[in-house]
Structures are given as structure tokens and as C-alpha cells.
Amino acid sequence: MTDATVYYHQDLSVDQQLALRTAAVRLAREFDGTCGTETIERFLHTSFDQFASLSSVPNFLPLLAERFARQRLHALARVEGKHRDGKPVVLFLCTHNAGRSQIALGWFTHLTGNRAVAWSGGSEPGTEVNPAAVAAMAERGIDITDEYPKPWTDEVVRAADVVITMGCGDACPVFPGTRYENWVLDDPAGWDLDGIRPLRDEIERRVRGLIDQLAIPAN
């Protein structure tokens, strides 16, 4: 690692520098032979920058940056043909990545387990997942408390076999060979638990239909 990497920037705290240095080492070990050091550093750097303008909890920034960089590196490996596990990849996109797409991600992951890969993102990511969405999913035994709003990047979109959009319109890049489907669903921002339950159930119905179309065995 060189002194040009993100964790040596003077505007970062000592704790942030240490956390990012440790994250870079972990990612380098995890993607050894798949992604080069320069790519890993760049993805960690840009992921940190993307969350720095969104997060209100600076201590969590290195963790979020590492998690998002890891997802992006996995996506890049798929795009470049360096990771072939045969699992279909579905990407759920909405505006804030705080309600609809997080509910869809929760259902898809719950129903498919490790038989498929699911990611989510937003065109204008919020600062937290809608608490009512978290509570609504918890009622059905699905925990999405570890999820967080995030943007999407080109490599994540390119790695997906199916991209489901929900209100992000023309903001989503279109790549040849990728299947796109738009779900017309209201944005639940500001809704309470009673209001969000019907949306949760409608998204469940659509996710189950998508799983059937992809011929993925559901739990």
C-alpha cells in the first residue's frame, strides 16, 4: 500500500486511517489473485468518499466503505469472468435505497438463501433504511437491520442478470444483455407501519414471481 491511499489523507482521523488500512489488508487477502492492489485501493477510496457525504456517523464510514467496496469487487470479478458460480444476480434499485429496494432485497435473500445473489442501490441514497420497513419485515421474520442505503456503480449494474427498478427512472444505466424490469410501486418514505404492510406484501408477491421466472428453488 502506498502513501497515496485514502487512509493517509490528512482530513481523516487517526481511527479512520487505521480502520481503512485494516480494511485494505482484509480486502487484499480476500481478493488475492482476482483484483490488483491498485483496484482494491481505488474501490475502497471511492466507496469511502461516496458515504462520507451521506453518513451522519463518521465512525461507521470505514465499515460501510469496506462492505460496499467488497460488493463492488465481487461485481467486477463477475464482469471480468473471474468469478463463475452459476448463481443468478438480481439488483434492486429505487430512489433512496431505504424502503422498496431494501424490502425486495430482504424477501429475495430470505427466499433464495445462497442459491442466488441479490444487491440493492439507490439513485439518491438516503441516510438510513426506513424504520417502518425494518419493522414490517421483522413481522415476517426477516431481519434487514444490517442493510444500509448505498448508490449503485457501473460494475454492479453490469454484473447483474436482472435489474429491477422502482422509481429511479432514467437514472439507471442500461447495458446490453441485461434484463430490466420496472415495478411501479409508491415510495414509502414517511409511511408508518400500518401503511407499509400492504407494500411489503405486494413486493413479496412480485419477488416470488421473479424467483419462479428465474427457476430458483425458493425456501
TrEMBL record:
What's any GO biological process attached to this entry? response to arsenic-containing substance
Every Phosphotyrosine protein phosphatase I domain range = 88-213
Alphabetical keyword list: Arsenical resistance
What name does the UniProt record give this protein?
A: Arsenate reductase ArsC
Q: Tell me the organism's taxonomic lineage.
A: Bacteria, Bacillati, Actinomycetota, Actinomycetes, Micromonosporales
